[in-house]
Each structure stands twice: as C-alpha cells, then as structure tokens.
Amino acid sequence: MKKEGLTEDQGPVRNKAVNEHRLNFAVARGETQKNVNKEILKFLTKRFEKKQPSKILDLPCGTMLFASYLKLIFPSAQITGADIQEPAVEETRFVKMDLTKEFSLLTDETYDLITSISGIMMFGNTLSFISNCSKRLTPEGTFIITNDNSATILDKLFFLFLGRFRLFKPVFEDSETLIQNVSIQELCRLLRTNGLEIETIKYTSIYVKDLLFFPIAILIYPIQTLYLYYKTKYSTPLVRLMFPFKQYFCRHYIIVARKVSQVSA
Within a 10 A sphere around the Cβ of 219, how many other Cβ atoms? Predict the structure, then answer.
C-alpha cells in the first residue's frame, strides 16, 4: 500500500478546500484500484457541499483508511466502519460483522451515506448485502459502491484464450477470498430492485499500457452499441452509463445511487 499523507486539521483552510471540491491531503490507493478513493472523495465534497451527512457507514472498512479520509472532510459526522476482521487501528467507530448476513446494527439505525469500496468481490451473497445497505439508508440517502471491471479488452482476451478473467485465478483454493465476479449488469439490477436509483456510473483506473488495445476497441464498440440500441429495453441514459467506450480500458467503476423515497398510498 502506498503511504498516505494526512494533514493536520486546518479549520477554515480545510473547509474552503472542501467547498472548492479539492482535497488538501494526499490520498493513497489503499485496498482498491488507483484513483478510486480520490474520485469518490472529490465527488462527496461536491455532493455534500451545503449540507454534510450526519451519519456515515463504510463497509467493508478494511484498514479504515477510507474512513479516516471521510473523517477529514466530514469532521462533524458520526462515521462507522464495519468488517469481518478488526483493523489494527480504529480511526472511527467499528462494528465487527459478517457483511453477507444480516447487519448486526441497531434495527432503527440509518445513515445518510453508505460507501462500499472494492468489497463485493469477496461477498458470498451480493443480494443480501445490497438489501441490507438499502434498509440502512435514510430516504434520499446516498449509496456509493465500487467494483472491478471485468469487461475490459484485456479481460475479454483473457477469457477467450485462457478461460478466466484477469483478476480471478483459474482455480479457486478453499481459502480463496477474491471469488465473486459480479457484472455491472447484475449489480445495477440489484440496486434497482432494492429501491436504489442509479444516478451516475464513473469508470476509472486506466493505465497507459491498456491503450495498446485501442484498435480492438474501435472495432468492437460500434457493434456493441448497435446491439444495445436494438436489444435493451432500459432507458438509454442508463445503458450509456453502463457501457461507455472507457469500459474497454478502465479497470474499476464507481456507482452512485440514491434511495428512492417511499410514496405513501
């Protein structure tokens, strides 16, 4: 992991930087792909510029690196991290729990913001996890979930010639943890069916070497676009968000969703 460089609390100086949608501290890659943490933090400073979230839940929190960043930009918020293993250092409140099961939190405890960074590749029950997250969100609350993209040109070539995706081993050992290859199609479906409206999808984590496959992408993209145009029944904006040209190169994507308020009969 790259060494993070957190600055001291600078009061008005920090708040000014937040309002201008900038981060005045170094953001490490951490336990995800490059630029993911930074992209999310920049988005959050813009989303909550006027009214900061009062309660935040980060899961799985891992080493609590991302939770420490949330604490810097939202100093007045109550931040809770949850994971199956306790972190070496608890930067914020921590709850130990198996995220594939019912959340061991108070039943009436809800959050304005829930973040889940690069975690669902290790969960045995994505449906249960998404459902639990939705239940814990306040009406109009924000849910941010990220996942590795297995639809890059490199992944397609890996599968064509080796029968596997780049990130996942060809054969899983009994103790393997990185085993869940959740497609963006399935993830978007689970979000929608659990009362979450997808606002935006951002692809990130691109490397120069991946651009070597640009000629192949140029050939494939028009064909895929025509196929999606005639074969999908979902709204065009969502299809465009799910299948942009960047999908062929970016190794990670970030989905921002909002909990739809229940309309009383």
Answer: 8
Strands 137-148 and 78-83: unpaired
Rounded to whole angstroms, the Cα distance separating 209 from 196 reads 36
Q: Check if the beta carbon of residue 23 is closer than 8 Å to that of residue 42.
A: yes
How many residues would you count in the chain? 265
12-259 belongs to which homologous superfamily? Vaccinia Virus protein VP39 (3.40.50.150)
The values of phi and psi at residue 202, to 5°, are: -120, 125
Question: pTM value?
Answer: 0.89
Calculate mean pLDDT across residues 159-178: 91
**Contact call for residues 92 and 67 (beta carbons, < 8 A):** yes
Report the alpha-carbon distance of residue 255 to residue 187 in Å, rounded.
9
Count CA within 13 A, CB hemisphere, residue 95.
17
Q: Which residues contact 108 (CB under 8 A, 6 or more apart)?
A: none
Q: Answer yes or no: are the C-beta atoms of 150 and 166 closer than 8 Å.
A: yes
Residue 108 has a pLDDT of: 81
Name the residue ranges covered by the structural domains of the chain: 12-259
In tens, the pLDDT along 23-48 reads: 889 999 999 999 999 999 999 999 99
**Helices 12-19, 65-73: crossing angle, 10 deg rounding:** 100
CA separation for the pair 106, 263 (Å, rounded) = 25
